[in-house]
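Example for tutorial group B:
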């Protein structure tokens, strides 16, 4: 249980630091947020827990393909906000469309024989 608390604490501190740094410099915050911290931490925690490199290879490969549809969120959110759509509606709409793009990406990849 202490180990899970440690993982939560480290992960939470990193998110908090990025949030606080972003208040002072949106550029530095963006640089830090663009680093795939969740993926890196997930891979580290998974390796520590299992030492299963074959699953990490598969996970890394899947993350690569799924980063592409996630980029739609970062294009759509500012687009909707510039159209003076409220923040929470813009956020919700961007997430919803991103989820649809995820499903489309998975479908397209399967047509090319790529299974995630």
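The residue assignment follows.
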């Amino acid at each position: 249980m202490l180990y899970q608390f440690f993982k939560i604490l480290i992960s939470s501190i990193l998110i908090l630091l990025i949030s606080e740094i972003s208040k002072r410099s949106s550029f530095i915050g963006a640089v830090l947020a663009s680093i795939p911290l969740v993926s890196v931490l997930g891979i580290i925690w998974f390796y520590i827990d299992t030492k299963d490199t074959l699953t990490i290879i598969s996970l890394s490969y899947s993350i690569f393909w799924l980063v592409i549809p996630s980029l739609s969120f970062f294009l759509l959110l500012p687009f909707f906000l510039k159209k003076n759509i409220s923040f929470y509606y813009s956020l919700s709409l961007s997430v919803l469309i991103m989820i649809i793009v995820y499903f489309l990406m998975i479908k397209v990849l399967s047509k090319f024989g790529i299974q995630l």
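Helices lie at 2-24, 26-34, 37-50, 53-82, 87-111. Compare this with the pattern of hydrophobic and polar residues in the output above.
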